[in-house]
Amino acid sequence: ADVEEFYAQCDPEKENLCLYGYANEAWEVALPAEEVPTELPEPALGINFARDGMKRSDWLALVAVHSDSWLVSVAFYYAARLTRNDRKRLFGMMNDLPTVYEVISGMRQSKERDRSGGIDNSGRNKLPSKHTVEAPPPPRAENNARDADEGYDEDDGDHSETLCGTCGGIYSAEEFWIGCDVCERWYHGKCVKITPAKAESIKQYKCPSCSSKRPRQ
């Protein structure tokens, strides 16, 4: 709503500026905090420099992405002392809200139209297993007992925002995905050069990143 005022305050001729948001829904474009280390994680520095060198919509989208990253970092700074289940609950509550980027780019409206139009997204709300596109993700063997003891409420049905660890693409049930048994990230099969047939013969899959790590001696 305040985009015109925000745009005017981000003068590229000024020093490194940051966009701060506050709990009372106020915002401020200001210089970064001087104390080191800072009390809270700091937002992206120098958002004003690229303002005149990009399309207005692209620049606003870039600031929105950085703002979302900062909001998540602040939330999990406060969540550091929460339990595992409480952190999951916190992230679920955050994920129910639109991101700044979704609002700026119009993705929020398109998602709302999908929901209101009765589009069935159930086919894309489950991650594939290593071996089939339709099956949900396989449980991690080492976590089974612990999850049962903690009463951890797995919500494996909502994976529409799962991102590929290589290309960053959003999960789609139309494509084959494979999960790393070490870091538990998910990947397009094509991004890590694994086909469904090849996945059938893999007992424990390690992504390229985990495979390249040398074991500690």
Order of helices and strands: HEEHHHHHEEHH
Q: What is the general shape?
A: globular
Structural class: mainly alpha
Give a count of the beta strands, DSSP E runs of length 2 or more: 4
Total of domains:
2
How do the strands line up in the largest sheet? 1-2
CA(first)-CA(last) distance = 56 Å
Individual helix count: 8
Helix content: 25-40%
**Mind telling me the C-alpha Rg?**
21 Å
Average pLDDT for all residues: 77
Q: Describe the main β-sheet briefly.
A: 2 strands, antiparallel
Low-confidence stretches: 118-126, 128-157
Description:
With 217 residues, the chain is mainly alpha-helical. It folds into 2 domains: 2-113, no CATH class; 161-209, Zinc/RING finger domain, C3HC4 (zinc finger) (Herpes Virus-1, 2-Layer Sandwich). 34% of the residues lie in helices and 6% in strands. It contains 8 helices and 4 strands. A two-stranded antiparallel ribbon has the order 1-2. The chain has a two-stranded antiparallel sheet with strand order 3-4. Strand 1 (18-21) and strand 2 form a beta hairpin. The protein is globular, with a radius of gyration of 21 Å. Residues 108-157 are annotated as: Disordered. Pfam families: Alfin, PHD. Belongs to the Alfin family.
What key phrases describe this protein's structure?
217 residues; 2 domains; Alfin; Herpes Virus-1; mainly alpha; 6% strand; PHD finger protein ALFIN-LIKE; two-stranded antiparallel ribbon; single chain; zinc-finger; two-stranded antiparallel sheet; 34% helix
Topology readout:
Elements (H helix, E strand, L loop, with lengths): L2 H7 L8 E4 L5 E4 L25 H23 L5 H12 L4 H6 L1 H10 L27 H7 L26 E3 L6 E3 L7 H4 L8 H5 L5
Antiparallel strand pairs: 1-2, 3-4
